[in-house]
Design a protein that fits this description.
The chain is of the alpha+beta class. It has a domain at 2-119: Jelly Rolls (Sandwich), CATH 2.60.120. It is 49% helix and 22% strand. It is built from 9 helices and 8 strands. The protein has helices spanning 2-11, 16-24, 81-86, 107-116, 121-144, 147-155, 158-163, 166-173, 177-186; strands spanning 27-31, 36-38, 46-52, 55-60, 66-72, 76-77, 93-96, 100-106. The chain has a 4-stranded antiparallel β-sheet. It has a 4-stranded antiparallel β-sheet with strand order 2-7-4-5. A hairpin with a 5-residue loop joins strand 4 and strand 5 (66-72). The protein is globular. The termini are far apart.
């Protein structure tokens, strides 16, 4: 719970009592590798914080090929935010790609916390800001950078290369398995 506590403190300042109340709304559980915490057509009803492990968010394209759009590591959110914020069915899947431990809070409890503790609204606002900036940066990356440049950026994040299967990294980078193999050889 210490990791989650630090994660919350990074985004907002709460009294000890408020922080304890917020933490009491989270539940901890283990997710086995290969299990999904969300599937296409379901509504994302919880904010999921990764204590330990890895998740990927992906969809199936028109050829039924899996395309990875996001990878979550320790101390990151593994939530399909569009579905979570709108409470509408998702087009994505979230799969554990390693045995993982998560802390989650239901949508309704999170909304209640925003009402009960006004200072906690900053938590939601700052996370939303990070999501928007990250999405813009990812779009710009795909529009203005080569696959090699995106791969070089990924090399700076060692966890990606050590913990994520190459087939998922390839779609995350927007390249084929063969192209990723060429990029890896040319480094």
């Amino acid at each position: 719970m210490v990791q989650l506590e630090e994660f919350i403190k990074y985004y907002c300042k709460l009294s000890s009592k408020e922080l304890g109340y917020v933490l009491s709304k989270f539940s901890i559980r283990t997710i086995r590798k290969g299990k999904h915490i969300l599937k296409k057509g379901q509504t994302c009803r919880e904010l999921v914080y990764t204590i330990k492990g890895n998740f990927r968010i992906y969809y199936r394209d028109e050829k039924d090929k899996e395309v990875t759009t996001w990878i979550a590591f320790d101390d990151m959110l593994a939530t399909e935010h569009a579905s979570f914020f709108t409470q509408q069915p998702t087009k994505f899947n979230i799969e554990a790609i390693a045995d993982s431990e998560i802390a989650s809070i239901p949508y309704k409890d999170l909304q209640q916390l925003y009402n009960d503790i006004p200072a906690f609204q900053e938590f939601g606002r700052k996370i939303a800001e990070e999501i928007v900036v990250g999405a813009i940066n990812r779009v710009i990356s795909f529009q203005h950078e080569t696959a090699n440049k995106r791969y070089q950026q990924l090399l700076k994040k060692k966890d990606y290369l050590q913990k994520i299967p190459l087939k998922h990294l390839a779609t995350f980078l927007g390249v084929t398995d063969t192209s990723l193999s060429r990029l890896r050889k040319s480094k």
